């Protein structure tokens, strides 16, 4: 099989090696001339695939060989988008240290924080926020990460984004936003 031959999904042997976190094969393929920039039919490089499959050593190696930490798939997702979506906190930390754009948007307007909120990746959400992720940015449907967290019942991530939702010591939940809306509606009804 030629080193850059593709299957019916346009995956190369390098994609498969990255998917299986087989660093030795990844190293040998690249040393033998494999195209590290090859993308599958979804626009995913071996780096995207390694992130999805939690292959941290492979991620580190591919970046050391020149892979762009901000390369985008067909739907505009960067490796950090995938780390956020699949709750790969250590990989996300590494990608951020390599210059990953935290607030990059995919074709749906999702930032990494949107995807963390949607998939209840609370640890990644905490990491993103601590690295200045925008919390009030809206996707193509006008939703913020907090609204997506609510929509997908991602309670832990909602609490990371909005600390006022954390249960108090007596067990009561505090929803300042709802309380504020209630007070406003009372005042409007008085007039």
UniProtKB/TrEMBL annotation:
The keyword Nucleotide-binding does not apply. InterPro entries: Ankyrin_rpt (IPR002110), Ankyrin_rpt-contain_sf (IPR036770), Multifunctional_regulatory (IPR050745). Pfam families: Ank, Ank_2. ANK repeats lie at residues 9-41, 42-74, 75-107, 108-140. Keywords: ANK repeat, Repeat. This is Ankyrin repeat protein, putative. It comes from Trichomonas vaginalis (strain ATCC PRA-98 / G3).
């Amino acid at each position: 099989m030629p080193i850059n031959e593709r299957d019916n999904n346009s995956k190369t042997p390098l994609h498969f090696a990255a998917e299986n976190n087989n660093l030795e094969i990844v190293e040998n393929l690249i040393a033998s001339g494999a195209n590290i920039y090859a993308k599958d039919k979804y626009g995913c490089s071996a780096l995207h695939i390694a992130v999805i499959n939690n292959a941290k050593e492979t991620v580190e190696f591919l970046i050391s060989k020149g892979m762009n930490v901000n390369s985008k798939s067909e739907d505009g997702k960067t490796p950090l988008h995938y780390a956020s979506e699949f709750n790969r906190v250590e990989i996300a930390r590494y990608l951020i240290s390599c210059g990953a754009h935290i607030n990059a948007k995919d074709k749906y307007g999702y930032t990494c924080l949107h995807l963390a909120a949607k998939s209840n990746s609370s640890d990644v959400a905490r990491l993103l926020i601590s690295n200045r992720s925008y919390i009030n940015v809206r996707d193509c449907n006008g939703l913020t990460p907090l609204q997506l967290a609510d929509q997908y019942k991602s309670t832990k991530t909602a609490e990371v984004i909005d600390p006022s939702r954390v249960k108090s010591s007596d067990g009561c939940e505090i929803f300042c936003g709802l309380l504020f809306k209630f007070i406003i509606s009372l005042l409007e009804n008085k007039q």
